[in-house]
């Protein structure tokens, strides 16, 4: 778990987006781990914080594209919680750890890959610089 | 069923890095605690029954490609081995492990991590002993317009009992009136057939009490009497048209009323289309029908001003040709100006191709179709039923995940022109498709709750009703006697939004509690 980046994704659109990404031949570094949930709406602050506490250097919540959530607004609820935790982390001055919300549609393989790598890179370098 | 967990991996050239090394995996798995045995199958999809014999009597964690699910391998496995949901977990390792990483070592490590993680979830989960809930074999239809009547007639004479709520709201919406013009007395005949039918009970909307969700469907009481139970509610109100936007002009409904009542229409009649937005083909069809009837009955001069004519409906081109032959004048415009001095209109515009100006001075009647939407009582009913509206137009969001007639509230089917602009044929077709959706819901076997159904701990629940407010499926209701929130298991889809938002942490998903999810995440 140490130094890993945990992707919590829903089993609907986001799962398909990940599948599309791999179908297009994009690979992720070994740091990335994935975990499937019924909907990103079921993510709460405890899940996000506990994972950071257990040594994950980043948690990415990967939801369906906005307005395309199967469960209406589960992804937007997750976004709000991620924003809350992000604010808490920055207020507490935590370095080298991040939480992010990413939205992906099932046809956005390349964009998803780029976003994930960018986030991992940004989260990593931020910690080192400081 | 013993509590030991067997992991079964199908490895049929799924990985681009070559076949998995079973020996390596077993060695790595020896360090973990929860998985007792590992079996690597070469091709699980081929001759599955023989291969399944080896793993009988244990909790099983299947890891394979998505094809195994599509081909029904897991269903067959569950059937053969007598596994219930909760005793078996399935994970797609192709896209999330085998193809996700580049290095064979990383793949192995992550695969073991995944097995370890999911086996913790599986160890905590219990086998389901749910009995399917049988829905009440009756249907409530809200709306007595063309679609509501059509739906009632489609369903009557079957094994379902049908109740129809007559809405007062729209006298008759333009689509309905236009349908009435195409075949006179259609609505009256349909109403008569429904009223005289022995299978259909008709109630006025004013007598209707609130709709409550229960396990078997819904309950409604009429005139404060005994609650009637329904397995499904069909929402089929008529669309209404916005009132005329300019003083002295008519909207289409007003024009149709005049035509229906055989009131005199004379002089120069001007229809103005595409004024604020593009007029949909269904409305154009209604307008052409009105123009045709006016031309047939009177010697009025009919103008139709429009930006474009999209003949996207069968029969619309013929109707256009016919009305043009009858002498209806079609004018394409740009930069239309509508000067209105207390009902005295002065219309000027430009020809889009030549730029030539045209002018219609003081026409006798200007008809501007307004945007369609749901009427006040329909909106109120939609709110009671918890339907999500998208703008003013649709009673449900367009979604690829659901059938056309299904709404966000399981059991409430939306039918007819409430779903958008529809002509008479469209409404009839939609009533038929609604019957199919109803059949899919009301199976004789009943509805089995989903595996991750939400449950409320009555001790912890503080009756804040957060979950009742935010459940996208209206699957949480308030239990007034015990002052707790109560899930409707037949409606719950197991998304977990309620569990994540509950401030008292009183809601858990079955086989997916927060503790087990955390433990599973740690094992990755």
Question: How would you sum up this structure in a few lines?
Answer:
The complex is a heterodimer of chains A (130) and B (524). With 130 residues, chain A is an alpha/beta fold.
Word description of this protein:
The complex is a heterodimer of chains A (130) and B (524). Chain A has a single domain (5-129), classed as Rossmann fold. The two termini of chain A are 23 Å apart. Chain A is globular and about 35 Å long. Chain A has helices spanning 13-23, 45-53, 74-92, 109-129; strands spanning 5-10, 32-37, 58-64, 98-104. Chain A is α/β, with parallel strands linked by helices. The model of chain A has no long low-confidence stretch (mean pLDDT 89). With 524 residues, chain B is of the alpha/beta class. A 5-stranded parallel beta sheet of chain B has the order 7-6-5-11-21, sandwiched between helices. The radius of gyration of chain B is 31 Å and the shape is elongated. In chain B, helix 7 crosses helix 9 (186-196) and helix 10 runs parallel beside helix 11. Chain B starts with a strand and ends with a helix. Classes of the chains: A alpha/beta (130), B alpha/beta (524). At the A-B interface, helix 1, strand 2, helix 2 and helix 3 of A face helix 5, helix 6, helix 16 and helix 17 of B.
């Amino acid at each position: 778990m140490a130094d890993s980046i945990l992707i919590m994704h829903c089993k609907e659109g986001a799962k398909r987006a990940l599948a599309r990404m791999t179908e297009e031949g994009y690979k992720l570094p070994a740091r990335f781990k994935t975990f499937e949930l019924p909907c990103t709406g079921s993510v709460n602050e405890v899940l996000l914080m506990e994972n950071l506490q257990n040594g994950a250097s980043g948690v990415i919540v990967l939801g369906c594209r906005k307005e395309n959530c199967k469960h209406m607004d589960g992804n937007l609820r997750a976004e709000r919680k991620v924003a809350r935790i992000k604010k808490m982390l920055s207020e507490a001055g935590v370095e080298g750890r991040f939480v992010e919300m990413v939205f992906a549609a099932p046809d956005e393989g390349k964009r998803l890959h780029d976003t994930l790598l960018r986030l991992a890179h940004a989260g990593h370098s931020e910690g080192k610089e400081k | 069923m013993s509590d030991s967990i067997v992991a079964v991996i199908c490895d049929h050239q799924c990985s681009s890095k070559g076949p998995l090394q079973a020996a390596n995996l077993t060695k790595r798995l020896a360090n973990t605690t929860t998985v007792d045995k590992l079996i690597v199958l070469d091709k699980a999809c081929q001759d599955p029954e023989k291969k399944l014999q080896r793993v009988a009597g244990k909790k099983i964690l299947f890891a394979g490609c998505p094809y195994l699910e599509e081909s029904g391998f897991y269903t067959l496995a569950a059937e053969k081995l007598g596994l219930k949901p909760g005793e078996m977990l399935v994970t797609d390792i192709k896209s999330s492990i085998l193809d996700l990483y580049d290095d064979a070592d990383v793949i192995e490590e992550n695969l073991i991590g995944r097995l370890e993680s999911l086996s913790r979830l599986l160890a905590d989960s219990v086998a389901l002993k749910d009995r399917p809930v049988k829905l009440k074999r009756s249907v409530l239809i809200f709306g007595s317009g063309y679609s509501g009547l059509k739906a009632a007639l489609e369903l009557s004479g079957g094994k379902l009992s049908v109740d129809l709520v007559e809405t007062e709201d729209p006298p008759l919406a333009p689509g309905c009136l236009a349908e009435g013009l195409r075949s006179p007395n259609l609505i009256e005949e349909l109403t008569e057939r429904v009223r005289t039918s022995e299978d259909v009970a008709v109630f006025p909307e004013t007598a209707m009490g609130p709709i409550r969700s229960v396990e078997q469907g819904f309950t409604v009481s009429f005139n404060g009497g005994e609650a009637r139970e329904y397995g499904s509610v069909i929402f089929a109100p008529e669309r209404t048209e916005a009132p005329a936007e300019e003083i002295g002009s008519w909207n289409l409904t007003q024009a149709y009323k005049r035509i229906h009542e055989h009131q005199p229409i004379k002089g120069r009649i001007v229809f103005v289309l595409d004024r604020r937005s593009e007029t949909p083909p269904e409305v154009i069809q209604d307008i052409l029908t009105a123009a045709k009837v006016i031309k047939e009955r009177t010697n009025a001069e009919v103008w139709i001003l429009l930006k474009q004519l999209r003949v996207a409906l069968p029969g619309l081109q013929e109707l256009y040709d016919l009305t043009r032959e009858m002498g209806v004048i079609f004018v394409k415009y740009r930069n239309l100006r509508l000067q209105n001095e207390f009902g005295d209109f002065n219309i000027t515009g430009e020809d889009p191709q030549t730029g030539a100006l045209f002018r219609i001075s003081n026409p006798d009647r200007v008809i501007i179709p307004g945007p369609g939407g749901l009427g006040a009582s329909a909106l109120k009913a939609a709110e009671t039923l918890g339907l999500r509206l998208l703008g003013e137009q649709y009673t449900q969001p367009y979604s690829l995940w659901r059938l056309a007639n299904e709404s966000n509230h399981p059991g409430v089917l939306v039918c007819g022109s409430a779903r958008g602009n529809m002509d008479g044929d469209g409404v009839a077709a939609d009533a038929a498709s609604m019957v199919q959706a109803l059949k899919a819901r009301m199976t004789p076997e009943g509805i089995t709750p989903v595996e991750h159904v939400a449950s409320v701990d009555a001790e912890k629940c503080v009756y804040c009703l957060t979950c009742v407010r935010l459940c996208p499926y209206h699957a949480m209701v308030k239990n007034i006697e015990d002052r707790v929130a109560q899930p409707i298991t037949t409606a719950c889809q197991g998304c977990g939004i309620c569990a994540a938002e509950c401030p008292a942490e009183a809601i858990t998903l079955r086989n997916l509690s927060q503790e087990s999810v955390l433990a599973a995440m740690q094992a990755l």
